[in-house]
Input
Amino acid sequence: MDRAGVEETAQAAIRSLRARRNPGRAEGVRQYFKHAVVALGIDSPTLRQCGLDQVKRLQPSWTLAESVALCDRLLQEPEMEIRGLGILILHGFRKEFGLDLLQPARRWLATRLDNWALVDSFAGMVLSPILERYPTMAETLRQWSRARPLWVRRAALVTLVPFARRGTHLDLAYGLVRQHFSDREDLMHKAAGWLLREAGKTDMPRLKSFLLEHGSSIPRTALRYAIERFSAAERRALLEATRPLHAFKEPGQPPKRTGAHGSRSRRSSPHRPGPRRPA
Output
């Protein structure tokens, strides 16, 4: 592997992106996230095109090893877009992905990928393709789902989203979701609800049965995400049937309701670097 070539490519990419800085849009990105982020203000279509251009130039002479090294180098930078470019370039070499990529992936999730936008993009662009080729990766996802770092846990669930959407790996998806009913992190409840919602696209009766079976133990955030595609009447009925026990007051007092409609604004969930609403 040509390490000097990797560093030269990284430096050129960093300079190119920083030259495209848009301070106004960057401020909007910073306000969008609940926690501090460093952003250049580059829009997603522009960033994707930069990634495609890099992959087109590098693929004829580079191997997966160089793309991993480049991703590792770009993930060291503070700006979201530069780290997102590393993910995009690595995704361009997905046909060469193997299970050995899971080791650096786990390290990046624990130390370099520190917001839901980057983690979700990484899960969809890097981890999902590995699971597609190697179903035995399911055991790794079970382990990651129980990990201490938040972003490792979230990646375990988000990796399954495209599969749940197609009706595959549903047993694994439902099993992992159950582990996070008591998770303290709201971002895990959102990920669980997102995964359930996608699982319902091909088997709505199974989703409904799951929600009724686990009832009040399901976090309300997860439940509202999960029931999005039910009718308004079904959403109301599911919210009523799964009200947490603590929502009830003492006898003689009216019950405390946790919500009546179960709807929220539609949120897209593309697997790409760049800010979007967390799922």
